[in-house]
Amino acid sequence: MGSSRRVSAVVLLVVVVAALAVTGVYGKEKKKKEKICNKGWECSGSVYCCNETITDYFQVYQFEELFSKRNTPVAHANGFWDYQSFITAAALYEPLGFGTTGEKQIKMKEIAAFLGHVGSKTSCGYGVATGGPLAWGLCYNHELSPSQSYCTDSYVYPCTPGAEYYGRGALPVYWNDNYGIIGEALKVDLLSHPEYLEQNATLAFQAAIWRWMTPMKKKQPSAHDVFVGNWKPTKNDTLSKRLPGFGATMNILYSDLVCGQGFIDSMNNIISHYQYYLDLMGVGREQSGDNLDCAEQAAFNPTAPTATS
Ligand SMILES: *[C@@H]1O[C@H](CO)[C@@H](O)[C@H](O)[C@H]1NC(C)=O
Ligand SMILES: *[C@@H]1O[C@H](CO)[C@@H](O)[C@H](O)[C@H]1NC(C)=O
Ligand SMILES: *[C@@H]1O[C@H](CO)[C@@H](O)[C@H](O)[C@H]1NC(C)=O
Q1: β 44-46/37-38 pair status
Q2: What intrachain disulfides are recorded (predicted)?
């Protein structure tokens, strides 16, 4: 009796120790799986920083190739944009997956896609421009002849007297409420000082990457999400022809101003920049991916009939 009780006590002890050991090992394995990596200022404090980061596959000479005409005398933001300001701005978002998600090719494609939007929106290239119309991205850092002051009634983000909210930045920001929202996110008072976006290239890139990484509404994906494969379309999305790919990034950023209108120039121009950059980065336009356009997509957030971008 006595010895059998001792035996069962020993068995129990062994079981408990084994269970503890298993939990311990499991805990360690789990920790290892979620290893945090530090690559210095460029990318630190996240699992995304363990793989290649942007400077590993996108270097200054490539930036110069993509935006080869931006510092020519006729360019309107001559001397403003540079590689370092892009990398410094990206460093805030690399730990969240910007240019650091998935296989190397997906990372490179995300940078080509993001910069494709930027290049298209800041281009002063036209049909007969030297170097071709796609070589003129980052030609502007602000709208040249605004037709209005882009001030709308807003309780939360009222216009600062004298301030103008015309298009500025790498993915141009318009309207006081958009300056207010982005300023709040970046902790810079853009509502009082919208001009910062045409004075500071790092801030201009930060605002653009924030826009790329942030869903416009709750329960909606960001442009980053639909591009890197973080997003599963609902039945409604599928019925609206919204599927993962470059096309859906245009839907999120420009809505029905660009999407659901067939193969219009403004949409084709953004796609052309993306593919031109894929070629220059050595990925190749044949890797553009499925659902490249949004010609037939219904907007995630249709614009109100009276509002414009
Ligand atoms: C790191 O790279 C591997 C292989 O390319 C990829 O499967 C994995 O998803 C990457 N990690 C993250 C956090 O994206
Ligand atoms: C430009 O913006 C960045 C990011 O907000 C900031 O760190 C930097 O100090 C700014 N530079 C100048 C000259 O204001
Ligand atoms: C799906 O779309 C229909 C029609 O536009 C809408 O009434 C419904 O609320 C949507 N369902 C979801 C889950 O979004």
Answers
A1: antiparallel
A2: 151-159, 259-294
Mean pLDDT of successive 10-residue stretches along the chain, which has 309 residues: 48 44 44 76 92 96 97 93 97 97 97 98 82 94 90 95 96 97 98 97 98 94 98 97 98 97 97 98 98 98 67
DSSP letters spanning 89-109: HHTTTGGGTTTTSSSHHHHHH
Kindly list the protein residues whose Cβ atom lies closer than 6 A to any atom of ligand 2: 188, 200, 202-203, 206
How far is the centre of ligand 1, averaged over its atoms, from the C-alpha of 40 (Å)?
A: 19
Using alpha carbons only, give the angle 13, 16, 20 rounded to the nearest 5 degrees. 140
Q: How far apart are CA 296 and CA 294, in angstroms?
A: 5
Best residue among 168, 200, 206, 209 to mutate for probing ligand 2's pocket (most ligand atoms within 8 Å of CB) is 200
| Alpha carbon distances (Å) from 120 to 43, 93, 201, 243 | 27, 22, 17, 22
Angstrom distance (rounded) from CA 111 to CA 170: 14
Other Cβ atoms less than 10 A from the Cβ of 29: the count is 10
Q: What is the pTM of this model?
A: 0.88
Q: How far apart are the C-alpha atoms of 260 and 250, rounded to whole Å?
A: 11
Q: Which ligand is nearest to the CA of 84?
A: 2
Nearest residue (CA) to ligand 2, atom 10 = 200
